[in-house]
Amino acid sequence: MNFWRRKREAGELRQYLLGTLAPSRQENLEQRLLTETAVYEELLATEDELVDKYLTNQLGEIDRKRFESHFAVSEDHQRKIVFGKTFCSYLESISSKYESLAVKEKPAFSRRPLIATSIILTMLVMALVLAWSIYKKQTQSSVIKQTLAVTLVSGSNRAEGTSTQRLSRPPTDTVLAVRLEIASNDYQKYRVELFREGQPVTVFDPLTAEPSGGHFVLTVNVDSKLLDAGDYVFKLSGMSPSGSPELKGQYNLRIAP
After folding, report:
1. CA–CA gap between residue 139 and residue 133 (Å, rounded)
2. 10 and 59, same domain (yes or no)
3. Closest CA relative to residue 256, chosen from 236, 227, 234, 235
4. pTM across the whole model
């Protein structure tokens, strides 16, 4: 990927993450995120850059408001922000600790300034390596290997004649990105409950709807380990101001062996 293309795509990804990308370009970008590893990795890097600039007060007022109202509502993004704050606080505490130590030991360190500086730098590097390893473990657990995607349209149950979309069982160690289409975005937050043969499997919340091609979509990422052969129902509810779920629709999916 050449420099000009990367710069252009980084701008689109930034707009996408801040909720300012035009709907006509957003749908194409989302499809590429599901199929192109390089673009998805660029998205993760852009997320890290936005979090870093937010925590260090490098975002303008408009972008900062968009960051807080759009980017920060995602659960994954909230984890990155919390980690970033923790990491910054940790480095500040380490720096303060060794600055205090340097003051207390001023006579000794004044005689050997290079040794004192080396000790401080070594401790800071060790702290950085430790924090980075923790961060990688956290992000690896949340990184989605977008290998398969499916779009479902809301309908009533199969007994009333609604067709059920069929899909072969996803490979192991992958994630199925399920895009649930809705005609209108009536709630700020949504909740999706996944059932298999009438039995609850897992719950996804809080979720936000994104515009896409004249309608709205919510994306839930289902670990393939949860998907055995059988009939599944995704029940979508909007969260009322009181916090109680209000059923908005359900989506049927059959996983073949």
Report:
1. 10
2. yes
3. 227
4. 0.45
Selection from 110, 51, 109 nearest residue 85 by Cα: 51
**Tens digits of residue pLDDT in 42-75:** 888 888 889 888 888 898 999 999 888 888 888 8
Name the 3-class secondary structure at 3: helix
- The CA distance from 252 to 233, in Å, is 5
Final residue belonging to a domain, choices 124, 142, 160 = 142
Contact 210, 26 (CB under 8 A): yes
Tell me the C-alpha distance between 145 and 167, whole Å: 18
Q: How many domains does the chain have?
A: 3
CATH number at residue 231: 2.60.40.1220
Segments of the chain assigned E as strands: 146-153, 165-168, 175-182, 190-196, 199-207, 210-212, 215-223, 230-239, 245-256
Range(s) of the domain holding residue 100: 75-142
> Are 91 and 132 within 8 A, CB to CB?
no
